[in-house]
Amino acid sequence: MTALLDIENLSKHFPGGVRAVDGISFHIAPGETLALVGESGCGKSTTSRLALRLLEPTTGSIRFNGEDLRTLSPAALRRRRRDMQIVFQDPYASLNPRMTIGEIIAEPLRVHGLAPTRAAMQARVAELLDRVGLPPDAAARYPRQFSGGQRQRIGIARAIGPNPSLVVADEPVSALDVSLQGQVVNLLQDLQEQLGLSYLFVAHDLAVVRHIAHRVAVMYLGVIVETAPADRLFAAPHHPYTQALLSAAPEPEPGAVRNRIILQGEIPSPRAIPPGCRFHTRCPLAQDICRAQTPPNQQVAPGHTAACHFAAPYPIPTESRR
Amino acid sequence: MNNPLLQVEGLTTAFRAGGALIRPVQDVSFSVAQGGALGIVGESGSGKSVTALSILRLLPDTARIETGRILFDGTDLATAGMTSVRGRDIGMVFQEPMTSLNPVLRVGDQVAESLTLHNICPPAEARARAIDMLRRVGLSDPERRAQDYPHQMSGGMRQRVMIAGALVCRPRLLIADEPTTALDVTIQAQILDILRRMRAELGTAIVLITHDLGVIAEFVESVVVMYAGRVVERADVASLFRNPGHPYTTGLLRAVPRLHDVQRRLYQIPGNVPPPTRFPPGCRFAPRCAEARPICTEHVPPEIALSPSQSAACWKHTGFARP
Amino acid sequence: MRHPVTLICLAIVVAFVAIAAFGPLILPQDPLAQSFIARLKPPSAAHWFGTDRYGRDVFARVLLGTRWSLLLGLAAPLIAGTLGTLIGAFAGFYGGWFDRIAGRVADLLMAFPSLLLGILLAAALGPGFGNLIAAVAFAFLPRFIRVARASTLAVRSEPYVEASFAAGEHPLRIVLRHVLPNISGPVIVVGTLWIATAIRIEATLSFIGLGVQPPAPSWGNIIRDGLTNILGSPWPVVTAGFTLTLCVLAFNIVGDAVRDALDPDYRE
User: Fold this and answer.
1) Taking the mean position of all CA atoms in its chain, how far away is CA A39?
2) Which of A244, B69, B81, C59 makes an SS bond possible with A261, Cβ 3.0 to 4.6 Å?
3) pLDDT digits (tens, 9 = 90+) for C73-122
4) pLDDT tens, B118-153?
């Protein structure tokens, strides 16, 4: 199976010595969901923009369907965008307040000439609204007349309109109430099944990721520290940062006995990245070697890599509850 | 000592919004024991933050408390001088530590401020106590850090400063409104740990307002669940999670994504949270409730006691009949 | 927008615009007709605002002067607004050398008060109403460039603009479809607020002889003309001055109301 998206040694440095993304590689297969997980400032949102070349990378290659996006001319890149779309975190700011829902959803269709007549456009917009569970009369209304959850559906309708093969979803549910997150996550899953979409799903909430991702890549300070199939990552995380992240998430189980790792200190600034392993300043396992040498990405199982000198499984004690 | 520390009775807060009067909080009652920890859980628009602001009398000019009493240690806060209570007997921590701190004051001075404001101790001692409190909330090198301005700190450190400021007078009650929502999960764990430790050290009672059921499960003893401005359920934390009495609580618990849940699909509550301008009549959750009967959309359900420590405002507990 | 003072001011603005449009048709008297016997008369039933030192009816002159004041008051911000918005939007959207040059020039021009700049340009271009409009419009240009550029920078970083890029939209069309409509609010607000200033500048320039040339009347030259005989009869100065003040005040208050009303978040 060839990858739909294949990213090699990608980095993005901003002026002032900020290494927001610092040499990462990953791939996404057709129909697959890869979740990019990490805390604020880890570079996951920047990565999602680089993957679509909405931001210009400093180094690295982005192969989409075997073609390096970085070699494309601006016009060719714009044509290519039909196949790769994005859903944003903020359901309020991502819709132009002065355009109707119909105009918003129609934009990518019009750009790529996918609905040549007015009637065809209206029919397609109505079909897309129906797909995301909104009534057809929504097309004539304005974004402010909709709630956050409904707006996120509108953003999804816009993204799937041109029948893309890849959708980047940048924290699509983190601005929504818990009772609405399920609606959006399930909708994304349904659409994946119906349309064969691939997702790059950016999130900070591991529990949400658990439900949607096939594979998970954990980012810390601009690098990927661990990649694994979702089931494996949650059952046997190998990197101490992944382990801490999993154990820090509070779970709605009163009285659960847990072996919590509380990390000390703050996340360092991407302006001043620690030498050696970037995580050593907060790592409970750090040794001298971690301060001196950058750990290589080692394969700990098929499809499971961890960048740690002491990578070892750390089963989260799910069975010891109550 | 059996008196509750904080008692809220029948609180209704009204806002004027574009000519109309909206009530984001309606008929809310609860109490917090001395040294206890109460969680108020709800989604956006549930009225949980307005409840906190009503207790602290920090409402904007367009709002007023229509009915209800708020007793702190037996005294009505409407008659007690609020400014002498706020900051001294009741500390508060908000979601956004950047906007709650004064950007042009050094953090040490901000923490010491409430001590000097309430004439608890002379300025020199206040400084020492502020630095001591900064150390207790886990700031390394607090003497030097006290000289910093808020913008020089990370979000997690600012929230520690907020907590130090809220606790420096050793208040008997701390009201924390979404104290960890803006923070990353590893930093959230640190902050909750600090709150837990400080509570044990100082015996401070806590009202923790959050949308996060995980935080509730780990931190508090009793819970009030709010939906669209009303209390729909109150219970001790174990009963609430094991045996929720209101369909909204049940739905919320099922909707929370869990780390160790292998099932792919998430439970979803249909519909949307209504805005305060369009609260439905009867039970406000009825339009989204799978169990709703005609009575639910007509009459507001009373709170039915399910056990000495649990009650829910749902008609199903009366067999959908009016008592 | 529903405040009574605002409504009164809106009515005044509408009245001024109507007078400017139809004034010549409803003139009570010939504004140029001199009369030796009716010089420097106080207000009366025949001459509502009195007469000037040539015996001309001041009311008719003020009425006709409205036309010049409003024409300049509207034309200068409109021209400056259109040009400035385009320059500012493209500078803010594309950045680069164009942005740097436009920004520097705007900063340089901002260092001069618009009145002074207007006087300098009007003097350099010579008398004439077209030159006057050009001078005032140019004096206003940097303010519109600034507002448009700053608003564009804000809109440029909105996710809906990023969404449009992601959809594959051409940058030029992004400016047209997303940027211009969303910066129109602040630009229109600035525009309405500068109408009053333009009217004031026109009056000032006419007052010092660089604007509307006598015998054609404008509020500025009526006041100047009245000043020569202010001790004999203050009425031309008082009435034209009051009209000017009323007009500027009404436009300012309506401008503020427009600003409050144009924020898309406050509209339903």
Assistant:
1) 12
2) A244
3) 899 999 999 999 999 999 999 988 989 998 888 888 888 887 888 888 88
4) 888 888 899 999 999 998 888 888 899 899 998 888
C134: Cα within 13 Å, side-chain hemisphere: 12
Using alpha carbons, select from B237, B252, B243 the residue that is nearest to residue B317: B243
The Cα-based distances of B193 to A264, B119, B199 in angstroms read 11, 30, 10
A251–chain B Cβ distance below 8 A for any pair: yes
* CA–CA dist C50, C60 (Å, integer): 10
Q: Where are the beta strands (DSSP E) in A123-183?
A: 166-170
B260 vs A149, A212, A318: nearest CB? A318
CATH number at residue C189: 1.10.3720.10
Looking at the DSSP bridge assignments, the partners of residue A301 are A304
- Domain map (residue ranges) of chain A: 242-322
In a domain, residue C130? The reply is yes
A213/chain C closest Cα distance in angstroms: 23
Amino acid identity, position B160: R
**The Cα angle at residue A252 between residues A251 and A257, in degrees rounded to 5:** 60
CB proximity list for B139: less than 8 A, separation 6 or greater: B145, B157, B160, B161, B164
Distances A93 to A125, A143, C2, C16, C154 between C-alpha atoms, Å: 21, 10, 29, 40, 12
The rounded distance, in Å, linking the Cα atoms of C8 and C179 is: 34
C30-63 b/e (C-beta count within 10 Å ≥ 16 → b): ebeeeeeebbbbeeeeebbbbbbeebbbbbbbbb
Residues in chain C: 268
Q: Give domain status of residue C15, yes or no.
A: no
Whether C107 is covered by a domain: the verdict is yes
Query: What distance, in Å, lies between the first and last C-alpha atoms of chain B?
Result: 35
B214·A249 Cβ contact <8 A = yes
Total number of domains in chain C: 1
Residue with token string 């099922």 = B254
- Reference A93, options C186, C89, C162; nearest CA is C162
Q: What span, in angstroms and rounded, lies between the C-alpha atoms of B70 and B6? A: 7
**Cα separations in angstroms, B172 against B71, B159, C1, C129:** 14, 20, 49, 75
Query: How far apart are the C-alpha atoms of A270 and A273, rounded to whole Å?
Result: 5
In sequence order, what E strands does chain A have? 5-14, 18-28, 33-37, 59-64, 67-68, 84-87, 166-170, 198-203, 215-220, 223-229, 298-301, 304-306
d(CA C197, CA C195): 5
What are the tokens at B93?
A: 């921590």
Q: Cα–Cα distance between B186 and A248 in angstroms, integer?
A: 6
What pTM was computed for the model? 0.85
Within a domain: C199: yes
Measure CB to CB from residue A178 to each of B184, B256, B275 and give the nearest one: B256
E-strand stretches of B3-106 = 6-17, 20-32, 37-41, 63-72, 75-76, 90-93
Which among A181, A208, A245 has CB closest to B185? Answer: A245
A80 touches chain C (CB under 8 A): yes
- A172, A89 Cβ separation under 8 angstroms: yes
* Coil vs helix vs strand at B275: coil
What single letter denotes the amino acid at residue A279? F
So what's the pLDDT on residue A258?
A: 67
The model's pLDDT over B52-74, given as tens digits with 9 standing for 90+, comes to 999 988 888 889 999 999 999 88
- Give the range of the structural domain holding residue C105, as residue numbers without chain letter: 59-245
- CA pair distance A89, C41, nearest whole angstrom: 73
* CA-wise closest residue to A83 among A190, A198, A212, A228: A198
Token digits for C201? 């500048």
CA distance readout (Å), C152 to B71, C157, C185, C187, C259:
52, 9, 12, 11, 17
Residues ≥6 apart with Cβ < 8 Å to C188: C81, C258, C262
Query: Nearest CA to B175 among B207, B198, B211?
Result: B207
